[in-house]
Amino acid sequence: MPLTRLVRNTFITALVIAAFVISYRVTEADFPRLFRDLPKGRQLLTAFLTPELFTRDVETRTVSIAFPIPCGAAPEEEAFPSEGPRLVTSVKCAAPLEKFTLEGFDLQPSSEVVIRWRLPDDRTMTAIRTQTDSKGYFSQEVQARPIQAAVDGIPSRLEVDTLTPVGRLKPSQTLKDVLDNMFVTIFMALLSTTFATIIAAPLSFLAAGNITRKGCLGSGVYYLFRSFFNLMRSYDPLVMATIFGFWLSFGPFPGFLALTVVTIASLGKLFSEAVENIDPGPVEALQSVGAAPLHTVRYGVVPQVIPDFVSYIIYHWDINVRISTIIGFVGGGGIGYYLNLSINDFKWNQAGTAIWAIVIVVWAMDFLSAEIRKRLN
């Protein structure tokens, strides 16, 4: 026996070690890379930790220079200016995808700089954002875009906008947009939880074994609704949001429907288990005096499960606020959709504002739901 136990334990240990080794390999874990790519992470974390809450009016000043692509497509600049706000390039023209250096002199000091291309047909294409120093200077490597050649001898131009904050601080447009989308998320979660409760509460009694699992018909009803709840719970909210999004076009309404379907299954499961865990005494007392089944449920079951039901509903509203954030990433509307757009546009400060709003709301919802559940118990 000791030898058999030793062999069994050794085999189990070997399986566990093998599972962890395989897990490490399939995840392609590279912990040293965390430190090698630390500069990238520092830049993102700095942006996320500095949300865009307040702003000032911005004064924009534009300086431009002709820059033909490719060379020979249009006349080049004869000479660069030597005084005043000006741009200087290391070459006067370039082939598509060729890199060159762009310098700005005597621009607005300590200001954000937006470098963009102005095409011959007057369309614009943003290239890079950077910052001037205290003397109004910047230097930036730029790659020539394979853009439209000169039209009627008019070349493409390099334009630089310097954005200088002026006036008093005021709430930023980002903060207003984040608050608007956060309200959408909160009330989308509230409405989906309400609709799901209205549907799940009566169905949960049909999925409770102590209520319906009596006889062939009752057992059939029990297994039918139990299977329905288990089946619907197996679908991830993201999958449901994608389905409704392609069905109804993306927005808050498909997100609301996806949350509602998933919440019906989740609350139905929780409600049915609460019904099954009631004290059978009041039910048996009502049945002993000949009370009808509906009266038995009304007076023997419902009073016992109401505190649990309310607690589950509040808790699930809290959960749905978090889930609706994720649903927004597939076009389900609300703060998640705004966060997705900000990340895709590389607007890290705006994304940081949205993340901080999510953290604050989730914390507040968690505190509120915990306090309400505490008072109900």
From TrEMBL:
SUPFAM superfamilies for this protein: MetI-like
Membrane topology category: Multi-pass membrane protein
Gene3D superfamilies: MetI-like
Cellular component terms per the entry's GO annotation: plasma membrane
Domain of life: Bacteria
Intracellular or extracellular location(s): Cell membrane
A Pfam family the protein falls into: BPD_transp_1
Domain ABC transmembrane type-1: residue ranges: 182-369
Keyword terms, alphabetized: Cell membrane, Membrane, Transmembrane, Transmembrane helix, Transport
Transmembrane portions of the chain: 6-26, 178-201, 238-262, 319-339, 351-368
One GO MF term: ABC-type phosphonate transporter activity
Family statement drawn from the similarity comment of this UniProt entry: Belongs to the binding-protein-dependent transport system permease family.
Protein name per its UniProtKB record: Phosphonate ABC transporter, permease protein PhnE
Organism from which the protein derives: Bellilinea caldifistulae
